[in-house]
Amino acid sequence: MSRLAKAIMLGLLTAWVGFLATIIPPLGRFENELGLAWLFELRGPRAAPEEVVIITIDQESSDWLGLPNEPDKWPRELHGRLVRRLAQEGAAVIAFDIIFDEPRDPVQNRFFAEAIREAGNVVLFEYLKKRRKKVAIGGRQAEIEIEKRVPPIPEFASAAATLAPFPLPKVPIRVSQAWLFKFGVPTLPVAALQVYARPYYGDLLRLLKEVVPEEIQWLKNDWQPNRSQPALIALARHLQGRFQEDAQLPQSLLARLQNPEAPSRFQGQSVIAALIRGLSHQESFFLDFYGPPHTITTLPYHRVLAENSHSPLAFSFKGKAVFVGFSEQFQPEQKDGFYTVYSQPDGLDISGVEIAATAFANLLEQRSVTPLPLPLHYLVILLWGVGIGFFFLYLPMSALLPGAAILSIGYMSVAHYLFTGNGLWLPVTAPLLWQLPLGLVGALLWRYLMIETVIKPYLPAWFWRWWQWHSESPPPQMANGICLATDVQQYTALAERFELERLRPLLNRYFQSIFEPVKSRGGFIADIKGDAIMAIWANLISKQDIREQACLAALDIEKAVAEFNRCTPEAPLPTRIGLHYGKIVIGSVGSSEHLEYRAVGDVVNTASRIENLNKLLGTRVLTSHEVIVGLESIFARELGEFCVKGRQQPLAIYELICRTEEVNEALWHYCKQFNAALQVFQRRHWLEALEAFRALLARYGNDGPSLFYLQLSKYYTRTPPPASWSGVIDLS
Q1: What is the pLDDT of residues 680-712, one digit of tens each?
Q2: Residue 403 belongs to domain spanning
Q3: Cβ distance 343 to 107 under 8 Å?
Q4: What is the three-state SS of 100-138?
Q5: By CB atoms within 10 Å of each CB, which of 162, 194, 543, 652 scores lowest?
Q6: Burial class (CB in 10 A: 0-12, 13-18, 19+), 586
Q7: Rounded distance, CA 672 to CA 76, Å?
Q8: CA angle at residue 702 from 699 to 703, to 5 degrees?
């Protein structure tokens, strides 16, 4: 299978997971609960329109007015005074998010009703009362939920400009949407917008006449501010129904408003446009919250009543939409809170009146949180999934994790930009929580963990011969790398003594002990032959100093083998190690019958030769000069230059001893004396070298390299090398 085909398959699989994460309800809720919260968190608070003001009935006002903190029991005379004060200051609309369904003191009721009627711009709240009722359906008893609108008392209802419900869910459901219409009736934000826009109704009717004259013959041209609430509701219902029947009509009206000549012909263009968009919305929309509680301009109730009624207020209410309701600054006093993306850690939620004001402000700004249309949403999921498949399968392995991070940041940046700019809501959780991790893991499995090895035992051999013949192997990659070769001393004799049932678990424990140092130091096992392994460190995989990591792994292997031999004295496996550094090629090797992914090149063969040199020198860990040069953290002693079998160029060989911090004074002096004796040998002073190595052995005991050079010095005293000899020991 070609890489292109793999990329397409991985991309389609990733896209399918994105679809499932969207359509399965428990997973789809992540987007509403988590994705939207991320976008609000990244965006932060934004400025609310100055035209919207909230007057809060709160603990502070209760204390100042000397009333109990039970706002539903406040004298209604206060509300009447508040309405008259706001009307006097020129408020465009006054919306109460308070229930007035109980008759109270007749005098105060009359005062409040007269104030409402005189203002002519008050919208009163009617709440929805739910009750359950048992009904017979298909011969069976079933329980249904019935919602009933409960208006204010008739005295207030007849005086108000209009009545409107505003249903909101309670915790644990997070409020992210607001109803614009309920039972076909405008809710509080839309009703408030209708009253707010009344000064421009003449322009709206003229606009409608220009676009659809036949639809409004029943409407009068001179819409008066004191029209009754049924007329307002009728207008809203008529326009909403007409906009739903003809989806192009709102666009036609808005296009006419955007005409360059419109400013001279229509007043309040933005307000008329807001009303058209509000009435052409579906029944609900996603709220674009402005920030934590009290981000919208908020004034305590008592401040409006406290100032001299004969002088203007410090705050101007002229042309403002004023919402009155319960809202506290601290959680313990909160009576009307709703769980939102801006609910505070201390438990303080956004109040119902602030949510209503937010919905009104969104309508006035002609902006809300707008999810992508479903076809476009699925298209984004599809393109993102396919893009991930191609991106991860064509990216080098070392760049996969950084690439995934860059993709996440890039996608989130685009989502943040669109959300901050115009409230457009790109899907976030499906692409980032499900698709991206799946694409990354899938690419790792398919490219580097050889997924066919997992399912190979379950399919016939002929299928895998066909698969390997037709599939495209990962392209060969050239890099600087280190090969570490190991071999077990006298393994053949051990294998003869042990039965197969005992030998196999013994080898498994041995390999486990030496594999761990390789993996923990960033290498990978490229080959296993009998008791020998070949491990690889390559720059395309690791960004650390691979030479140091390989040397530390060799020292760790030596310790692990010593511990293994201590635990199994009946079957010790002394191990020799050789390391070499240079250019390697990593790729598939073999034929259609059998392919293996491994490293090839001179470095691999040379590492094996260096490992074999341990036999001659009586050492455990040998390395070439290319590996050890410049590594201050590793202590090694030079053993001379050797020309190994199958290689023309000589190698400077070092014995890897320990970490530099582990060197003691005795070891340092010994290596210094050995190096001095080696220089005497290389200067062809055979007798002097013979005495130097004999003295080392006498003082420090058995040492393989010293014994080797002692024997070689004896040989060269009898049969010296030619005069052209440069100190290289030819083992070929």
Answers
A1: 999 999 999 999 999 998 888 888 999 999 999
A2: 3-45+370-456
A3: no
A4: CCCCCCHHHHHHHHHHHHHHCCEEEECEEEEEEEEEEEC
A5: 543
A6: buried
A7: 102
A8: 100
Q: Greater confidence, 307 or 591?
A: 307
- The angle subtended at Cα 494 by Cα 491 and Cα 496, nearest 5°, is 115
Q: Are 488 and 532 members of one domain?
A: yes
Q: Does pTM surpass 0.85? A: no
Torsional sign, CA 513, 519, 522, 525: positive
Contact call for residues 256 and 211 (beta carbons, < 8 A): yes
In a shared domain, residues 205 and 195 = no
Q: Is residue 467 part of a domain?
A: no
* DSSP state letter for 280: H
* Domain annotation covers residue 464: no
Q: What is the pLDDT confidence band of residue 109, given thresholds at 50, 70 and 90?
A: very high
Six token digits for residue 95: 């919306």
* DSSP count for the chain of H helices, then E strands: 29, 25
Please enumerate, as own/partner, the contacts of 419-423 that have beta carbons within 8 Å and a separation of 24 or more. Answer: 419/39, 419/42, 419/43, 419/369, 420/42, 420/43, 420/46, 422/367, 422/370, 423/288, 423/367, 423/368, 423/369, 423/370
Q: What is the mean pLDDT of residues 476-502?
A: 78
Please determine, for residue 568, whether its predicted confidence score (pLDDT) is greater than 90.
no
HSE (side-chain half, CA atoms, 13 Å) at 621: 21
Instruction: Tell me how far the alpha carbon of residue 333 is from its chain's centroid.
Output: 37
For residues 137 and 629, what is the distance between their CA atoms, to the nearest angstrom? Answer: 88
Helix or strand run (H / E) with residue 236: helix 229-245
For tokens 């329980």, name the residue: 143
